[in-house]
């Protein structure tokens, strides 16, 4: 993820005024800056699902002479930035369907490592710290994640229940997900997680929370995510994967970091809460205390 990039900032600022095809091309460029620098315009357009002429029209829309200006800009930016795994992955031939399992596993794990490592960039660390501060100040934290993002929301809520009763997981049967916001107000915060394709109900509930006066913090995948326009603060994470499916590993990493930062704000209280949770779980005989012998 390229930081403090004037071209990237211009794309984001003009995104809402673009046609659907230009948006599709612009989003792909934002999310694949290394690819812009490494492949031809035709290949990039094919990967983005648009016509090559769309890339030219996008460049004109941005006030540039042509697509070569976009490519040259990204080539110059990447020259001064080592993004090892991602850059090397772009140089490899991904068309081999008979790729060995070990090779594919290595590529996937290297990609995940690079994506999580990018969360240590200064801008991401600043957003994480700001989000933790805002969550710590809230009376209640309402946690929302639908479809694939449900696991991230549940993880955050589960860990936080070990520390107290501050979180409310918006997860109800019979279309009652939004009912949890009935008593929510300006002293509360919504932590919303959503990635492309964005669950419509997540966006609707985030907008409802905004209208009710809640602060909104988003974990999402792009500067042009619809959640960014609703949220006070957005923490961005990549979801690209070497497999057929989006990855949620970076989003889960963000969840873990936020929980850790919140616990660290009052270590004495956190320790007492965890000890209380341990005693309760022990009384329920929740976990195995002896490992059964294996049958030979």
TrEMBL record:
Residues 131-268 form the SIS domain. It holds the Pfam family SIS. It comes from the Bacteria. Keywords: DNA-binding, Transcription, Transcription regulation. The keyword Chaperone does not apply. InterPro entries: Homeodomain-like_sf (IPR009057), HTH_RpiR (IPR000281), RpiR-like (IPR047640), RpiR-like_SIS (IPR035472), SIS_dom (IPR001347), SIS_dom_sf (IPR046348), WH-like_DNA-bd_sf (IPR036388). Residues 5-81 form the HTH rpiR-type domain. Coiled coil: none annotated. One of its GO terms (molecular function) is DNA binding. This is DNA-binding transcriptional regulator, MurR/RpiR family, contains HTH and SIS domains. It comes from Bosea robiniae.
